[in-house]
Write a structure and sequence with these properties.
Blueprint: E1 4-5, E2 24-30, E3 34-40, E4 48-53, H1 57-70, E5 79-84, H2 91-98, E6 102-106, H3 123-138, E7 147-148, H4 153-184, H5 196-210, H6 216-227
Parallel strand pairs: 2-5, 5-6
Antiparallel strand pairs: 1-7, 2-3, 3-4
Length: about 240
């Protein structure tokens, strides 16, 4: 879960409640194939809801211009936006800032109405809900949600490297466990360390050498154990 803070500093918010300038509020619900946009100019104004292809920033710019005209705003009217933290990460946040849009990324788990309690889970409902809460947040109701701290690109790159390493280590451990499980079905107990392909080649050689015997698995276990440094089995009476 991303680190969050209830009272994160909002970057240079435009004048929203002084009456000197009207804002265009934008909430984005980010789907895998489509984004749902909800746009409004404040409380009491029915949001304008549009759907665009996911990742289409040119279409997003077009919709912002159309919304400004629809609500009677000047072309230079400031835009404040939000979206929920998720699989898209922070690239969109940076793209919005670069285009002059003031954006906040919010923790989905902190939104007032839990998702599981909603009667209808739809992008349209989520976008409307988000834009309503965005208006409240900008007007000073900070507790409506938690704002996610957006890391620098350098910090984010480091996190990706750390997570990639953790994933690779976990994959390696799982693979070793599966190989050892398969070997165990043939009576082979082998600690896989160092040159694993060479160890497996030794196992295959042992099985070929002992295939004619009545106890091939036992022979493979004993011979591979000796070859790989395992102690010899204890002698049994009889």
């Amino acid at each position: 879960m991303p680190a969050t803070t209830r009272h994160a500093r909002v970057p240079a918010l435009p004048e929203s409640t002084t009456g000197q300038a009207r804002l265009l509020y934008l909430a984005l619900d980010l789907g895998e194939r489509h984004w749902t946009l909800a746009l409004t100019v404040g409380r009491g104004q029915r949001p304008r809801v549009r759907t665009i292809p996911a990742g289409d920033l040119e279409r997003l710019t077009t919709e912002l211009a159309a919304a400004r005209r629809r609500f009677g705003l000047p072309p230079e009217a400031r835009v404040v936006s939000c979206y929920e933290a998720g699989r898209d990460g922070f690239w969109l946040h940076r793209a919005l800032l670069a285009s002059g849009v003031t954006n906040v990324v919010v923790d989905a788990a902190s939104i007032e109405v839990p998702r599981c309690a909603r009667r209808a889970k739809t992008d349209r409902l989520d976008a409307r809900k988000l834009v309503t809460m965005l208006v409240r947040y900008i007007e000073g109701e900070r507790p409506v949600w938690h704002v996610v701290h957006v890391p620098s690109e350098a910090d984010e790159d480091r996190r990706h490297l750390e997570r990639e390493r953790e994933t690779l280590v976990a994959d390696q451990t799982g693979l070793v466990n599966r190989i050892q499980g398969l070997l165990a079905t043939q009576g082979v107990r082998l600690a896989l360390r160092g040159d694993v392909p060479a160890q497996l080649a030794a196992v295959r050689h042992c099985h070929r050498s002992c295939a004619h015997g009545s106890s091939a698995s036992g022979c493979a276990s004993r011979r591979c154990g000796r070859r790989c440094g395992r102690s010899r089995p204890r002698a049994t009476g009889g």
